[in-house]
TrEMBL record:
InterPro entries: LEA1/2/D7/KIN2. Residues 1-66 are annotated as: Disordered. It comes from the Eukaryota. PANTHER family: LATE EMBRYOGENESIS ABUNDANT PROTEIN (LEA) FAMILY PROTEIN (PTHR34191), STRESS-INDUCED PROTEIN KIN2-LIKE (PTHR34191:SF30). This is Stress-induced protein KIN2-like. Residues 1-25, 32-44 have a biased composition (Polar residues).
Amino acid sequence: MNQSQNASFQAGQAKGQTQEKTNQMMDKASDAMQSAKESCQEAGQQMKEKAQGAADAVKDTVGINK
């Protein structure tokens, strides 16, 4: 292999390694975003349930639920 071919080969290897690392980083970012989304959904559900409980308590207090 001559010097030009060797340089081209090494450049190709570096490009492939860079692409692989980029893909790994994108996968990690995607996983982190999915986890954050699930956490937000769970927190939202808990807030909704608490608000409903508070609304029910007020209704019970003023006699609307009877």
